[in-house]
Amino acid sequence: MRRFRDLFRLVLRYRLNLIGNIAFNALGSVLSLFTFLAIVPFLRILFQTGGATGGAAGPASGSEGSAESHPVFAGITRALDAYVAAHGAEHALLMMCGAIAVLAFIKNAVTYLSFYSLSTIRTGVARDLRSQLFDRILALPVGYFTEQRKGDLISRMTNDLMEVEFSVIGTLEVLFKAPIMILLSLVTLFAISWELTLFALVFMPVAGFIISRIAMALRGAAGRGKARLGDLISRLEETLGAMVVVKAFDAAPRFRGRFEEHNQGYFQLMRKLYKREYLSSPVSEFVSMTVIAILLAVGGRLVLRGEGLEGELFIGYLVVFSQIIPPARSLSDAIFKVQKGAASLDRLDEVLQAEVSVAEPDDPQPMTFQREIAFQRVHFAYPGAPDRALHGFDLTVEKGETVALVGASGSGKTTVARLLLRLYDPQEGVVRIDGADLCNVASGELRRHIGFVTQDPLLFNDTVAANIALFDPTPDGERIRAVAEIAHAMEFIDQLSEGLETTIGDGGGRLSGGQRQRLAIARALYHDPPILVLDEATSALDAEGERLVQAAIERVMEGRTAIVIAHRLSTVRRADRIVVMDKGRIVESGSHDELMAASGSYQGMVALQQLEG
Ligand SMILES: Nc1ncnc2c1ncn2[C@@H]1O[C@H](COP(=O)(O)OP(=O)(O)OP(=O)(O)O)[C@@H](O)[C@H]1O
Ligand SMILES: [Mg+2]
């Protein structure tokens, strides 16, 4: 039960509120008990004195035996009788009713205070859980986030978290309050009539058994339901992300069909779940009413036979007993809810406990980059992929060198870049910088050394400046302008309505492909990294734009080390070394002239592109 323990630890951060909640609940329980017990003296005033209104003979006259027979209530009864004798029955009655109203006010004020402290606990714990989850998501390796998982993660962070807040933390109050209320009531019941109470207690385990059976079944169903909902949201997420494709290919009916299938599955599961959940209330109500009926029979007989239980006390007993039922029922409801919430808590726990396959080193060694980057016999397959993307990849890039990676689509060029950034770890072999295994350096430090322009430039719905500085807390306006200038991005940024402060839409949707790439280049340059990795950085630019960016890149690469991945061979001609890859292996390497002279696959590729051009 570690997840409940972890959750409880979060709750304990709100110690003061928790203590407040429990204390106010206890106080509220005592007060409400008094409010209900007030029925006993009320009845006594009404009936005992009612018969004796004519004569002022004194209220105790007719019922000497019964009223004084109860050890606990005898004192109170005597005091009450004395009060009635002194001030008259009607006055006593009014005072009683006034006291009830005052008690009810105090009780409800106290109850409000208990909810007041609960509000901080439940929203606070939900907030902390959300932060924990988000931190975890940021720490997880990129390989974790498949398309299917994205929607599921969103579902976990919203639906499951809400379920935990509502079902587990929200019922916390019940879990503390109901037992106090039940215990206090039981003590009172024992005080009034221990025989009757013992008798009633026999039925409690029976009721408990029935209720717990239903609750267990509910939990399994709730877990399956949440998983289904995760699927559903994945589908939605995927469709929203691919709206252009959905419309362009007139695929809406097919997407609808797939969605409907999941929607129907979810409907069936949830219907089953609610059928079970709704069963809990009638079952517990039936059980409790049966117990009351039995009590009425047994207690009524005791009263009729005059066996140590007078009428008004029995009615008081029944009122108090009926007050056990709401907390007992809310307790059983709470058990249901907690079971339902536990399924969601499990799902949150799965994320919190997910293995970070690219783990941070415990004792990171300081990173330097003075000599070289070395891939040594690296074998790598993507998680779940049957084939390796890299087979014994060997490459050393000296500091200051520009190496171009070329090769057919799918030959593993992007994979090399990802391993250098340690987005994945190789299964065999190592990647080193200055001799240090990347697994032993802090990934933050590693990534600060590298500027990466991805094949698919990822932009955020924020201003141009924020996209270049990537939420740098202290953005350097001068620098942003300078790197945008170098990337030849300033030309189009100046045309935007608000220049660098223009918001560029979801994923940079308001920019063209080439403009997005130029922003991505500017971003990679912003932190002035000693190593640059450019993956197809110029592919979306027209000939003129490409020439400008190419010239700019050559300028910024001076004094830097660069790995340039490109399909257009004209852009890599001036690299110090060109490495040709095929199916995860290096098949050729050398300068442009050397490779042309060798008449190998590079020469073939160049010839092909010249034909096309
Ligand atoms: N996230 C992934 N999960 C599983 N397999 C992947 C993943 N990314 C790439 N692959 C596979 O790994 C191999 C190498 O892919 P990589 O992206 O490195 O190719 P590339 O040389 O960059 O191709 P391109 O020129 O088209 O960008 C391919 O066979 C590809 O199918
Ligand atoms: Mg690629």
Write the topology of this structure.
Elements: H1 2-12, H2 15-37, H3 39-48, H4 64-67, H5 73-87, H6 89-139, H7 147-169, H8 172-192, H9 194-201, H10 204-241, H11 243-248, H12 252-304, H13 311-352, E1 372-380, E2 390-398, E3 402-407, H14 413-420, E4 428-433, E5 436-437, H15 443-448, E6 450-453, H16 464-469, H17 477-486, H18 490-493, H19 513-526, E7 531-535, H20 543-557, E8 561-565, E9 577-582, E10 585-590, H21 592-598, H22 601-612
Parallel strand pairs: 3-8, 3-9, 6-7, 7-8
Antiparallel strand pairs: 1-2, 1-4, 4-5, 9-10
Helix pairs in contact: 2-6, 2-8, 3-6, 3-13, 5-6, 6-7, 7-10, 7-13, 8-9, 8-13, 10-12, 10-13, 12-13, 17-19
Magnesium ion is lined by residues 413-414, 455, 535.
3D structure, described in words:
- The structure is a single chain.
- With 613 residues, this protein is an alpha/beta fold.
- The protein has two domains: 2-352, ABC transporter type 1, transmembrane domain (ABC transporter transmembrane region fold), CATH 1.20.1560; 372-612, 3-Layer(aba) Sandwich (Rossmann fold), CATH 3.40.50.300.
- It contains 22 helices and ten strands.
- Strands 6-7-8-3-9-10 form a six-stranded mixed beta sheet, sandwiched between helices.
- The chain binds adenosine-5'-triphosphate and magnesium ion (MG).
- Adenosine-5'-triphosphate (ATP) is lined by residues 382, 385, 389, 409-415, 455.
